[in-house]
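Minutes, project check-in
Item: structure for the 147-residue chain
Input as provided by the requester:
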Amino acid sequence: MLKLTKRTEYGLIALIHLAEREGEVVSAREIGETYPVPRRLLAEVLKDLQHSGLVTSTRGAHGGYTLAESAEDISLGRVVGLLEGTPALTECQTEDKGPVCDVHANCPIRNPLDRIKQGLWNLMEQTSLRSLMEGAPVISLEGRESA
């Protein structure tokens, strides 16, 4: 089913670490020492997060990264969209939309799966970094709370 890339996982780990240390400048080295993630990939992800405006960087011996916005204002959907694009459930939902399958014109699953994809994306957009940190209940696709 839906599986986030390591790049996105590491980005979320770094963002949560920065949120836990709100107001402090945190080095990529510290994040890499706290979590067993490849330092090179972590540095690339932090650079992408900085270019997107989610984190700010400070150069120098005591340099590092801080969140550019509050953890409440950064959504899971925003991070996933930035680091890997909108997730697809079927081949015809991929962003490149390569060759369309033979069933495309009268496909019985395309529209229902599009609705599920949109519901999942809405859920990710409603899930803040803060709620991930706190393990807060998430609103299910039907609008009821789930654990």
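Outcome recorded: The longest strand covers residues 55-58.
No further action items on this chain.
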